[in-house]
Amino acid sequence: MRPLLIFGASRGVGLELARIERAAGRPVVAVVRQNSNAEALAATGTQVLRGNALERGDVTRAFAQLADEHDVVSTLGGQEEDGRRADDIGNINIIEEAELSGKAGRFLLVTSIGCGDMAPYRSARAVAAFGAAVDAKTIAEDRLKAGNLRWTIVRPGGLLSEPATGRGILAQDPEIHGFIHRQDVAQLVGRALRTPATTGHAFAAVDDQRMNCVNAVHPFPLAN
Prior knowledge:
The chain is α/β, with parallel strands linked by helices. It has helices at 12-23, 39-43, 56-64, 86-101, 124-146, 182-193, and strands spanning 4-7, 28-32, 47-50, 70-74, 104-110, 150-156, 158-160, 168-171, 177-181, 201-207, 211-212. It has an eight-stranded mixed β-sheet, with helices on both faces. A three-stranded mixed β-sheet has the order 7-9-11. Helix 1 (12-23) packs across helix 6 (182-193). It is globular and about 45 Å long. The model has no long low-confidence stretch (mean pLDDT 96).
């Protein structure tokens, strides 16, 4: 298995993904900020690097740590006190350094339901609550699509922290919305990386029993 480089793994989907991939024996390297608690991450056997994706030099150094071809996953989001967002600036730094390194196998970006072609179907409430973050993530998605990486985008619905249900699906209908557990998202991300046919596609990620869509939903077939 190619090594996996994760940005945003001190908690949430990134941490769950590191746990899953390390349990399968995959080498994992994760970049976390200086002030982040990485004890749970280190306990998985993940190699922890300290850095801030908003600082381009930190991203350059992270990619320099991997000599061979590797996959990349970013789950980054959030905003600094100075207004800079990891949703766009941080993710774009990662995308561009992955391109420059020439060593990225697959690149998977975790964003949010409502990004890209899903934007017209956002509710007014969602726009008011998360619109700026979702718009910034869309900027990162657009940069990824415009490059030369073998990319996949996963857009989770509302995130829940309970244990995985095993009911997570990826679907491409832009009108779908719903909820999903973080552990299920991590499982879907790992499976998407093992499914070459997901390359060049963006997907919503939802629990098939906690979703809504005006159209019939067709889950994308994934490797186990």
